[in-house]
C-alpha cells in the first residue's frame, strides 16, 4: 500500500525509515530521498511514527 502517492513511498518504505530512526515526516522523506509534494500523506506518516514510538515505549517497560 502506498503512503505517499506523489513520491511512491510504500508503507514498508516508511516503516523502514521509522525503524532506522526517522521521527519526523521530513526524516522519512529524507530517508526515501524525496520531499513532500502535496503533503496529504504527512498525517499518515505522523501516525505511523506515533504508533512505532508507542510500541517502543511499551517494549522498554
UniProtKB/TrEMBL annotation:
Checking InterPro entries in the record gives:
BFD-like_2Fe2S-bd_dom, BFD-like_2Fe2S-bd_dom_sf
Domain BFD-like [2Fe-2S]-binding residue range list: 2-51
Query: What name appears for this protein in its UniProt entry?
Result: Bacterioferritin-associated ferredoxin
Amino acid at each position: 500500500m502506498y503512503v505517499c502517492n506523489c513520491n511512491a513511498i510504500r508503507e514498508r518504505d516508511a516503516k523502514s525509515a521509522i525503524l532506522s530512526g526517522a521521527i519526523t515526516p521530513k526524516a522519512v522523506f529524507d530517508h526515501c530521498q524525496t520531499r513532500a509534494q502535496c503533503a496529504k500523506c504527512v498525517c499518515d506518516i505522523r501516525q505511523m511514527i506515533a504508533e512505532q514510538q508507542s510500541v517502543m515505549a511499551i517494549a522498554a517497560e
